[in-house]
């Protein structure tokens, strides 16, 4: 026994380099699975008893996976890289398939989560469940319960087996070799699908939160911009498609005079916070503390520098245009034009948009007029950008600009006669049929227009 011990000790000294190599290899393997290192930060969302229902009820994903684990459990620690490898396909800014599956986890070893883990009858670790996010938020799981929309995942103990289980449930073919930013969500042709609507609203939240951050970062709240911003916020409180954004904007409005008092703002001064020392962004989140999240779903481009914010803002404008009543249409039009003129930091975009606003000579008396104006303005912008991007090669190769709806999507929207503009034949859209088509894409609970995937 002593000889064996001496042999082991001597081996550990003489093979130190080999041991270090082994450890390095092991770490490399773990990194390839998704655990550890700056290249693979955790993307599965940690939930607890205080935010479980709220976060899941707000998720735009069609389905969620919830892992119940205990941090002291060796099997859970060994499973984490497998779970993270799958989560990276669906969660986070680099997700290949965002909006399909929301990957989360709950630590049952934390006392605050005891009742939550009991609610789902957690009997071993790790234990995985599958279901629509809203069902997790409002429900529970009981063994052998029939017709439950929450299911125990019985075969997910490796990354490959878990992904295979998900593929079987969705009828999909997701793979760890999938190309980054493939984003089949945006390419779906069924624009009236409820899941598409939810994902679009998710990006509308992201867009307005980003826009608010830009306003603060660029110190754009001054005496002459104060009134246009208040009016825009009032429009959002009444008609933003997201309840969270309506509530967050209302809170900002209630505190607006304290945060940006009119008496201390000048045209050259930065905003001044009198009532508190903290940055307003940290105390007043326009769409809640989870937003912005740092990534896009419906508005995601195939490259980091395409679509995103501009797409999200367009979807917001379309949404507002159909949510206002006839009597509000013209005032909403003026408020939006003033907001873009004062707060959109892309100078060419701001100038072109305001020129189109200035060409409107008659009041917009109906929702129909306002919605059609936003639609035609968006198409005009796309037509201009289409030419520029084609000439310069700066467009998104997978989502080139186009006039929406396409002739294939709505043949009846097009006039039989064409018009020649600058030597090029342009197909002309008929407004009445186009508005009827827009109306068919309204989902009554949210009344948000979902555009064709190349349109934004």
- Give the strand line-up of the largest sheet: 1-3-2-4-5
Can you summarize the main beta sheet?
A: 5 strands, mixed
Mean pLDDT rating: 76
Q: Quick one: overall form?
A: globular
Elements, N to C (H/E): HHEHEHEHEHEHHHHHHHHHHHEEH
Structural class: alpha/beta
Taken as a percent bin, the fraction of beta residues is 5-15%
Radius of gyration: 26 Å
> How many β-strand runs?
7
Low-confidence regions: 1-38, 181-194, 267-277, 420-427, 441-456
Which bin fits the share of residues in helices?
Answer: 40-55%
Distance, first to last CA: 74 Å
The tally of helices reads: 18
Layout of helices and strands:
Blueprint: H1 2-14, H2 16-33, E1 45-47, H3 52-58, E2 63-69, H4 74-90, E3 101-107, H5 114-119, E4 127-131, H6 133-138, E5 151-152, H7 159-170, H8 184-187, H9 194-217, H10 223-239, H11 243-254, H12 256-259, H13 280-283, H14 309-323, H15 329-343, H16 347-358, H17 367-392, E6 414-421, E7 424-429, H18 431-440
Parallel strand pairs: 1-3, 2-3
Antiparallel strand pairs: 2-4, 4-5, 6-7
Q: Summed up, what is this model?
A:
With 456 residues, this protein is α/β, with parallel strands linked by helices. The chain has 18 helices and 7 strands.
């Amino acid at each position: 026994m002593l000889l064996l011990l001496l042999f082991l000790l001597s081996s550990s000294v003489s093979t130190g380099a080999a041991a270090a190599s082994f450890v390095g290899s092991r770490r490399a393997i773990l990194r390839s699975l998704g655990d550890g290192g700056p290249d693979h930060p955790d993307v599965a969302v940690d939930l607890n008893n205080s935010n479980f229902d709220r976060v899941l009820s707000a998720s735009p994903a069609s389905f969620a996976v919830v892992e119940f684990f205990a941090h002291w459990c060796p099997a859970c620690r060994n499973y984490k890289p497998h779970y993270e490898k799958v989560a990276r396909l669906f969660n986070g800014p680099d997700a290949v398939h965002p909006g399909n599956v929301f990957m989360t986890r709950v630590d049952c070893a934390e006392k605050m989560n005891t009742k939550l883990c009991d609610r789902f009858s957690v009997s071993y670790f790790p234990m995985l469940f599958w279901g629509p996010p809203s069902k997790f938020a409002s429900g529970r799981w009981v063994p052998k319960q029939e017709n439950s929309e929450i299911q125990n995942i019985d075969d997910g103990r490796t990354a490959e087996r878990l992904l295979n289980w998900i593929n079987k449930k969705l009828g999909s073919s997701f793979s760890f070799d999938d190309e980054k930013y493939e984003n089949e969500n945006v390419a779906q042709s069924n624009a009236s699908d409820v899941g598409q609507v939810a994902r679009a609203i998710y990006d509308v939240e992201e867009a307005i939160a980003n826009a608010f951050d830009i306003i603060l970062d660029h110190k754009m709240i001054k005496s002459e911009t104060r009134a246009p911003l208040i009016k825009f916020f009032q429009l959002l409180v009444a008609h933003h498609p997201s309840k969270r954004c309506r509530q967050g904007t209302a809170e900002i409005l209630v505190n607006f005079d304290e945060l940006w008092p009119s008496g201390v703002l000048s045209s050259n001064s930065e905003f001044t916070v009198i009532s508190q020392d903290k940055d307003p962004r940290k105390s007043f989140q326009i769409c809640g503390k989870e937003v912005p999240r740092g990534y896009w779903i419906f508005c995601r481009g195939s490259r980091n520098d395409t679509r995103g914010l501009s797409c999200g803002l367009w979807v917001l404008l379309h949404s507002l245009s159909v949510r206002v009543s006839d009597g509000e249409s013209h005032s909403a039009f003026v408020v939006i034009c003033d907001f873009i003129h004062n707060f959109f930091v892309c100078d060419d975009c701001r100038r072109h948009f305001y020129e189109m606003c200035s060409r409107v000579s008659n009041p917009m008396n109906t929702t129909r007029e306002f919605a059609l104006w936003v639609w035609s303005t968006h198409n005009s912008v796309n037509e201009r950008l289409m030419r520029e991007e084609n000439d310069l090669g700066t467009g998104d190769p997978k989502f080139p600009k186009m006039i929406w709806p396409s002739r294939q999507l709505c043949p009846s929207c097009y006039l039989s006669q064409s018009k020649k503009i600058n030597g090029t034949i342009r197909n002309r859209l008929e407004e009445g049929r186009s508005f009827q088509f827009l109306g068919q894409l309204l989902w009554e609970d949210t009344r948000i227009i979902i555009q064709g995937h190349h349109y934004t």
